[in-house]
Amino acid sequence: MPVNSIAVFCGSKAGVDPLYEQHAIALGRLMVQHNIVLIYGGGNKGLMGAVANSVMDNGGKVVGVIPKVLVEWEAQHEGITELRVVEDMHTRKKMIYELCDVAVILAGGNGTLDELFEMLTWNNLNIHNKKIILLNSAGFYDHLIAHIDTMATQGFLYGDWRERLIVCNDPDAAIAVFL
User: pLDDT tens for residues 76-134?
Assistant: First the structure.
């Protein structure tokens, strides 16, 4: 199945390790090289802004989906191809899931983890069967991966979680998953 669009979930902050932003920028550039549209949360800051700017700077297409509350905070990205304003966070996530072919998870905070685990849960329930790629930049997700392993060994997961979540350490490996 060809990949035409990738949902990228990531932080609205850049984090302390410069590699997080470097990987966001590299992922955006690779998406454009492979003619893949970025679907993301519509923000203009942090890793969200970095990946969107990278796609736009390299001549690609970006679709942002943002809830009204974040527009009120003026957190929306004004320089992207298309910005869809929705009622709330739940509608935002659902629309992003529907618009994408694959999801890539970069470093981020609570919201990023919420998006990751909702997609994993929906995948597990066969609501969708989209590939989910965890970009483990600078080992950011090492502890989370260990915890998911613990959930599996303690009998709380259905099936092998690595069939649902593909862990990659750099943007080239993430893109290679579906090329």
Answer: 999 999 999 999 999 999 999 999 999 999 999 999 999 999 999 999 898 888 999 99
Q: What is the pTM of this model?
A: 0.95
Neighbours of 35 (CB within 10 A): 11
5-176 has which CATH code? 3.40.50.450
Domain residue extents for the chain: 5-176
* Residue-wise burial string across 144-177, b where 16 or more C-beta atoms lie within 10 A, e elsewhere: bbeebeeeeeeeebeeebeebbbbbebbeebbee
d(CA 99, CA 96): 5
Q: What is the Cα–Cα distance from 138 to 33, expressed in whole angstroms?
A: 24
Residues 6+ apart with CB under 8 A from 110: none
